[in-house]
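User: Here's a chain of 421 residues. Predict its fold as tokens.
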Amino acid sequence: MLKEMGIKVRSASRVMAVTPTQVKNQALLSLAALLEQARPEVKAANDQDIAAAKENGMSEALIDRLTLTETRLDGLSRDLRKLAALPDPIGEAFDETVLENGLRLHRRRVPLGVLGVIYESRPNVTIDVAGLAIKTGNGVILRGGKETIHSNLTLVRLARQALGENNLPEDAVQFIENPDRALVNELLKLHEYVDIIVPRGGEGLHRFCRENSQIPVITGGIGICHIYVDQNADLEKALPVIHNAKTQHPSVCNALDTLLVHKAAAAALLPRVVRRLAKDGVTFKAAPEALAALEGLEASLKTKVAPAGPEDFDTEWMSLVLGLKVVEDLDEAIRHTNAHSMSHSDSILTNDAEHAARWINEIDSAAVYVNASTRFTDGGQFGLGAEVAISTQRLHARGPMGLRELTTYKWVGEGDYTTRD
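Assistant: Prediction complete.
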């Protein structure tokens, strides 16, 4: 079954690779319009998935990830139009040079080829990835989770319809409808037809792909994200940043998991953090020094705070839970972050330029911030249109994987019947 799918998508990808930019852009605009026209159908399919998730006892965090709200649907159409307006990286020439023998060399951006994207819970990924694949002239095989099957089937049909309306091969976007996990293993063996595997899910999925794939794997999308509040930070300005990073969308990978506070700021800041965030339903896991700084809390708020366990600072909460820890100084904050981070997004709040520079230089994460929320690690927020994933590794891309990260290059040499000596 998947071999046939691979043959079709490989053939379609070769057509997409040479499709003019204006045609790809029109397909994106068509998809944006179709999403708006078919909104009742999309919502009905998504409601089916939500009802099944609730019946199966899925957590509130996961239900939030699979829910297509009106705002999120608006965002999908808006992002597709933004994507259409972005420059097309395909065909871009760079690193041009002329050798002594007169041979003119440059590198030219070309599509990666065929992407295999395995993801869970979030149907918006279907449109994000399909849109990026169309813009960059790639083919894609999508494998979503069974919990979003009705939503994904509807969204994939619209993506294929948009391609067909613009005389492009519908087979450039493929979807594995059967939820059988054995098919994931089969996909990982399609090295003749798939050029890169991108898993978007939990650590178990990432590990399975790394251990079983015959195709290069880019992992990411798992983040234990930190904010460190330095001793000289502006605490009035720090509170809204902490609140945004934790509560704006708690079930995503760039949401705040651990708040580190310099010991000189702990007594002034931590009670205010608990009072501010508890209003939005946040509960807290506090290390001993943080618990001591919260001794004066009102009794009603103390019930929101529990002692941190041995695994709590190695947990990606994906929910309204926040770890609290007091540190001795910047050195300890850096050590803790590098030891417990998943190399995703980590931020320092400080008015000390030297401390900010050290944080930037010494924190080993894909996105490092100074005086900003971790929630900015996102293809749309970075001006990339969207992303196929947030890569937390070093090859061949790191951070939000937008348009350029879905390309490779070829060397082009142009001569005048030039021969090598």
